[in-house]
Design a protein that fits this description.
The chain is an alpha+beta fold. It has 2 domains: 38 residues; 153 residues, Jelly Rolls (Sandwich), CATH 2.60.120.1440. It is built from 2 helices and 17 strands. A 9-stranded mixed sheet has the order 3-2-5-8-9-11-12-15-16, with no helix packed on it. An 8-stranded antiparallel sheet has the order 4-1-6-7-10-13-14-17, with no helix packed on it. Strand 2 and strand 3 form a beta hairpin. It is elongated.
Length: 241
């Protein structure tokens, strides 16, 4: 008679252990799935671009160590959710690297703009050095290698550019360059006053058309009212980041 309770207790123990193990496995799988989602990015493509050598399409999912290359008419934005986003201009190439609390990669051509909220560190390496932000504040870091050297501009917060033993501190709204200047450098515009080119939306195009029509009508009216037209001065406000 004593064997039956003993066997029953053993069976109950085995069932309990299997239940706990199953629950633990499901919980672990759920956590891993959530972690995988956090370090994945969604791509938005304008024009032509490739992801790891394959034609890129909007809505595609990318992971860390992905190589993105844009054509002459291309531009790519990688949305990383809470981590921020990475934008690549035309004729750019970058190996994206990101994980919880950090985004960046290696820029081998063109221009990239890496935007991150507070709490996310940014690090972009080039052949000349490493541009970085510690993540204490939100930052938008523009890195450009299209002129033969490395130019870095920071907005919203400070950053730094390390090249060998030399460290250049970049205050918000400033631009710093390291490396050998290329022959085409004179035609390169300041990073803070230029942005990654992308086709305008339909609303923006419509607004420009309306503005152009309005200006043409105003010019015709002015011409009919007076034969003596004096040129007006055009005032361009200075840039302040």
């Amino acid at each position: 008679m004593s064997r039956k309770p003993t066997m029953l207790r053993k069976m109950l123990s085995v069932v309990l252990m299997l239940s706990v193990a199953g629950f633990y496995t499901l919980g672990t799988t759920s956590v891993l799935a959530q972690s995988a989602q956090k370090v994945a990015g969604e791509v938005s493509v304008v024009g032509s671009a490739t992801i790891n050598g394959t034609t890129a399409i909007s809505g595609a999912t990318v992971f860390s160590d992905t190589t993105i290359k844009t054509a002459r008419n291309g531009a790519v934005t990688v949305n990383l959710g809470k981590l921020g986003r990475v934008e690549l201009a035309a004729e750019s190439e970058m190996v994206l690297r990101f994980a919880d609390g950090a985004i960046g990669g290696k820029l081998t051509g063109g221009r990239a703009v890496v935007s991150a909220p507070a709490g996310v560190a940014v690090s972009v390496a080039t052949s000349d050095g490493v541009a970085a932000s510690e993540g204490k504040q939100a930052v938008a870091l523009t890195v450009d290698v299209s002129c033969g050297n490395t130019r870095v501009a920071s907005t919203k917060s400070d950053a730094k550019l390390t090249s060998g033993s030399k460290v250049e501190h970049i205050a918000a709204g400033q631009e710093v360059a390291v490396g050998t200047q290329a022959s085409q450098a004179p035609r390169c515009t300041r990073l803070l006053t230029s942005s990654i080119a992308s086709p305008m939306s339909g609303g923006a195009i419509a607004a420009l058309i309306i503005a152009g029509v309005g200006a043409s009508i105003a010019g015709i009216i002015a011409a009919t009212q007076s034969d003596n037209v004096t040129p007006t001065s055009i005032v361009v406000s200075g840039f302040r980041p």
